[in-house]
Amino acid sequence: MAEAGNVKVFVIDTNIFIHNPEAIMSFRDNEIIIPLQVLEELDNLKTYSDNRGKSARDAIRFLEAISRRGDLHDGIKLENGSLLKVSLEQSSAVPKVMDINKNDNKILLCAAYFKEMGRQVFFVSKDINARVKATAIGIKAVDYEKEKVDIASLYQGVVEAEIAPDQAAAFDAMGSLPWKDKLRPNEFVILRERGSQNESLARASPEEGLITAVPQDLASVFGISPLNIRQRVALELLLDDKLSLVTIVGKAGTGKTLLAIAAALRKLFDEKSIAKILVTRPVISVGKDLGFLPGEKMAKMSAWMQPLFDNMDFILGSHKRDKLKSVDQMIRDKQLEIEALSYIRGRSLPNEYIIIDEAQNLTPHEVKTIVSRAGKGSKVVLTGDPYQIDNMYLDANSNGLSYLVDAFKGQSIFGHVTLMKSERSELAELASNLL
Asked: What is the rounded CA–CA span in Å between residue 246 and residue 381?
């Protein structure tokens, strides 16, 4: 336990509980303050049908369980050594331009109160603007760093190496090559022959210190063929039955979703190794959430799921086959399920190929909840671009997709690849790079 004079006060914003309902357990041996306004905001959010509502309900239940041990006003000791309090206090020194009727400002004034008491105060928020306002009134503000990763050094699943002509010849002849560098399970190596345009693809071998060749002659997957060597890696991972979890990261147009859907269709129709394909993506709304849209569930979801429909229609259109005509037909035959993430929680999903698109808009807590739904025989594929995030409380370093890649790297049932080149069009490639 920290000495009394060194105890810090962490004032927690509402969005921290939405990011991770049990986030307070990360603040060890200090004092944790939850302003009353945070509880009010969680109460308002709990009726939402989206991920925010689920996180708010989880946070309320978590806090309610803690409250049974004592008095939250006086403080309850937590297992991590911290003291948890709910505070009604606010600073009376209100800046003239601050609207005290706003909950955001009331939360900041709670932090200001403890600073006036001579305490070492930190305001913790995922909201950048709230952190800037806190700093402007003299309060130290920090982001929630517990589940952050360094996106600049994020595991790519692929390393590139130049080899001598004699090594290239030996690799072609033997189908393997000694490799000194440490590789993770299911990591790939792109071998480029020195002085030549030739390149080969190898995969980390279960036998340490060795890489093995990946066959070059991959037939098209439901009419889709890889257009570059990293897309080839993606298909290897997507079609590998030994892998239960695959992540594909890349900018717009790199083929993430298209490859995932093509692989799923092959597993369903050609190999018949799964019972159904389930595709979904987070509903990140501007203003109103899914529940405010008129119509049945599929009608509500159509706008959000249109990119998935576009990819599916493209594949089915380019790979004609008898008795398979449209996405609607697959849905009617229960071969394909289009679902909002909000409705997946609590389900068990066995023997399915589950594709979660735009996964960069999920928090680490949401990713954990959703991936844990996979039942026996299921494969979960998450795709996304960590640099294109619509969730205001996430960034390239703190989103669930980046966190998952970093947490699972090295696991034998996990594979990952970062796609680099946009294959959609020259315009799409320029837009991704320049805008």
From this structure: 5
Alpha-carbon distance 338 to 356, whole Å?
11
Stated pTM of the model: 0.83
Q: Pick from 110, 142, 174: which residue ends a domain? A: 142
Residues in the chain: 435
Count of the separate structural domains present in the chain:
2
Give Cα separations from 347 to 50, 62, 350, 370, 422 (angstroms).
Answer: 16, 21, 10, 9, 35
The answer to whether residues 27 and 79 touch, using CB atoms and an 8 Å cutoff, is: no
- Of 126-130, 163-167, 200-204, 293-297, which gets the smallest average pLDDT? 293-297
User: Strand pairing partners for 379?
Assistant: 353
Q: Determine, yes or no, domain membership for 222.
A: no
Q: Is 376 inside any structural domain?
A: yes
Tokens of 43: 């109460």
pLDDT digits (tens, 9 = 90+) for 37-65: 999 999 999 998 778 888 999 999 999 99
Residue span of the structural domain in which 28 resides: 4-142
Residue 416, classed as helix, strand or coil, is: strand
Instruction: Give the DSSP H or E segment for 303.
Output: helix 297-318
